[in-house]
Amino acid sequence: MTAPPAPDRDTESGPFWQGLAQHRLLLQECPACRRRRFPRMPTCPYCGTDGGEEVEPPGTGTVYSWVRVERALTPAAADQVPYCVATVDLDGGGRIHGRLEPPAAARIGMAVTPVYVDHDDWTELRFAGPEGGG
Ligand SMILES: [Zn+2]
């Protein structure tokens, strides 16, 4: 399998990627309104409060939406289609995106669990439906 391209990691997103490398999901939670956010950013997008506290939700959640990719966007991804990318509402709050496996299982409202996929120099967060990943 060809690995997806590595993400751009910067000062803001660094803790998220470092957490994934340890198979931990780290999100920011606003100290004022308590909403969780992704991607990471210095200010709460909901109430404007500066800063965020690290929280570590279990990574379980439900599928809010999804799309199945049938046609590779690049030749390097030809061996990966079809794959599914889901928007997941995390238990405890926050919404995040990740591949959903198996792609044929995707359903809105489906319960999912996190799957940490280690690539050469980064770890990808994916989700598995009730039938498991793989
Ligand atoms: Zn807030």
Protein model, in words:
The protein is mainly β and 134 residues long. It has one domain: Beta Barrel (OB fold (Dihydrolipoamide Acetyltransferase, E2P)). Helices cover 6% and strands 34% of the residues. It has 1 helix and 8 strands; from the N terminus they run αββββββββ. The protein has one helix at residues 14-21; strands spanning 27-29, 36-37, 53-55, 61-69, 83-90, 95-101, 111-118, 123-128. The strands form 2 sheets. A 5-stranded mixed barrel has the order 4-5-6-8-7. Strand 5 (83-90) and strand 6 (95-101) form a beta hairpin. The mean pLDDT is 92.
Can you describe this structure in just a few lines?
This protein has one domain: OB fold (Dihydrolipoamide Acetyltransferase, E2P). It contains one helix and eight strands, in the order αββββββββ. It has one helix at residues 14-21, and strands at residues 27-29, 36-37, 53-55, 61-69, 83-90, 95-101, 111-118, 123-128.
Write the topology of this structure.
Blueprint: H1 14-21, E1 27-29, E2 36-37, E3 53-55, E4 61-69, E5 83-90, E6 95-101, E7 111-118, E8 123-128
Parallel strand pairs: 6-8
Antiparallel strand pairs: 1-2, 1-3, 4-5, 4-7, 5-6, 7-8
The protein binds zinc ion.
Zinc ion (ZN) binds at residues 30, 32-33, 35, 44, 46-47, 49.
